[in-house]
């Protein structure tokens, strides 16, 4: 199945930023979207916009740290539309700071959302993909894993763990049934910096995003490009960042 029209796509972290933009982009291209996030009100408003424009959207309250929530998301897609073609794992948080600060609660939170949340999605969707004979995992990673900087050790570590996970899954899936795509955005104007605990670091990140950041719709178009390829073509990695970012 080439293109995005007619595909059924699950999206986590869909209530804002890249997830919201991806939902709008894919729905406008004819995909049915099943949207998951913790903020139910925002999800409902987003689904309303999609439906008002003639698109198809279903919503569920989803916390990716709960495996059962991802199972419900996948089951909802299959129950409503008969299948799930793509799972976009986009939910993520950032807790930055030097390792010596021992922000263990933040480390645990990033591992639970950024890594374990992706694993929960794979565990829920992979059996469905295998049963259907096709499926595509698209996962938001980060340029933080490509350029290692002080203060982002654990955040970048979770992102690089996901990058490694998807590459291994790709190598295990060369029968052509499952495709994987890692999307590594740089500075994008989203709410991600709001999850940073330290006020000074949070303010600095927000200033950089405001000054350099590209719109989340740019990332959404890259995701749509990867999804729209014919089934025998896999876009393994996309790095997308502002032209002025170091």
Task: Provide an overview of this structure.
With 246 residues, the protein is α/β, with parallel strands linked by helices. The chain has 7 helices and 7 strands. The chain has helices at residues 17-28, 40-52, 67-81, 104-132, 153-171, 199-212, 216-227, and strands at residues 8-12, 32-37, 56-61, 86-89, 135-140, 178-185, 237-240. It has a 7-stranded parallel sheet, sandwiched between helices. Helix 1 packs across helix 7 (216-227) and helix 4 packs parallel to helix 5.
Write the layout of secondary structure elements.
Blueprint: E1 8-12, H1 17-28, E2 32-37, H2 40-52, E3 56-61, H3 67-81, E4 86-89, H4 104-132, E5 135-140, H5 153-171, E6 178-185, H6 199-212, H7 216-227, E7 237-240
Parallel strand pairs: 1-2, 1-4, 2-3, 4-5, 5-6, 6-7
Helix pairs in contact: 1-7, 3-4, 4-5
The low-confidence parts are none
Form type: globular
| Oligomer status | single chain
Roughly how much helix do the residues carry, as a percent range?
40-55%
Distance between the termini: 37 Å
């Amino acid at each position: 199945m080439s293109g995005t029209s007619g595909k059924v796509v699950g999206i986590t972290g869909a209530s804002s930023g890249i997830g919201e933009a991806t939902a709008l982009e894919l729905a406008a291209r004819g995909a049915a979207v099943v949207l998951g996030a913790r903020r139910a009100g925002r999800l409902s408003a987003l689904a309303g916009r999609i439906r008002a424009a003639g698109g198809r959207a279903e919503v569920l309250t989803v916390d990716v740290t709960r495996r059962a929530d991802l199972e419900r998301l996948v089951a909802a897609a299959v129950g409503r539309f008969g299948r799930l073609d793509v799972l976009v794992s986009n939910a993520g948080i950032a807790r930055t700071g030097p390792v010596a600060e021992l922000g263990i609660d933040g480390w645990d939170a990033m591992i639970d959302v950024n890594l374990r949340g992706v694993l929960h999605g794979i565990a829920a969707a992979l059996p469905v993909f295998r049963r259907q004979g096709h499926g595509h995992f698209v996962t938001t990673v980060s340029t933080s894993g490509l350029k290692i900087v002080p203060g982002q050790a654990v955040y970048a570590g979770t992102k690089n763990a996901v990058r490694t996970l998807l590459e291994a899954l790709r190598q295990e899936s060369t029968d052509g049934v499952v495709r994987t795509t890692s999307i590594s955005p740089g500075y994008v104007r989203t709410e991600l910096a709001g999850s940073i605990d330290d006020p000074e670091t949070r303010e600095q990140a927000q200033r950089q995003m405001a000054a350099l950041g590209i719109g989340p719709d740019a990332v959404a178009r890259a995701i749509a490009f990867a999804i729209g390829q014919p089934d025998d073509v896999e876009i393994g990695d996309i790095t997308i960042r502002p032209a002025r970012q170091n």
